[in-house]
Amino acid sequence: MVKRGPKRGYEQTKEHAAKSVVARLGKSFTWFDDEEFFQGATKRKSHNLVRRYARLIPQNRCRGCGVTDEWNGEKLVLHLDHINGNRDDNRLENLRWLCPNCHSQTPTYCGRNGRGFTGYSHSPETRKKIGDLNRGRKHTLEARKKMSVAAKKRYS
Hints:
Protein name: HNH nuclease domain-containing protein
InterPro entries: His-Me_finger_sf, HNH_nuc, NUMOD3
GO molecular function, one term: DNA binding
Strand content: 5-15%
Strand order of the largest sheet: 1-2
Low-confidence stretches: 25-32, 116-120
Number of helices: 6
Organism: marine sediment metagenome
Pfam family, one: NUMOD3
Radius of gyration: 25 Å
Shape: elongated
Mean pLDDT: 69
Largest sheet: 2 strands, antiparallel
């Protein structure tokens, strides 16, 4: 039965839903406190995670190199890094703020921690070449060292 008057439509539906959930659970709605939120390895929405972590630990400095939130006169956006590489592990001791440069140097940056497709049976040498190409390394370590020495001579 639809009520007439100020409470009808959306407001009535919202009120009914709240009452039925409270009745089924036998308790009122509660919000997670911060410690309870970060415990366990459950999935959370990333923007909620960043917002709660930013409230607990200010993001004014990179934990890798110590750079502040400004770089070359521009605002620097710090990344929220999961230290062990598990994006579902949102405990405070597993999270840290890193600048984009430090974050890109971590072994777990952008899926480098082995979450990718591993169905192909390439040889170890071929897998290394593919990995180097995916990371933008088109030359061997020795060739990169030679190019670095040549560049230092040229520009010094």
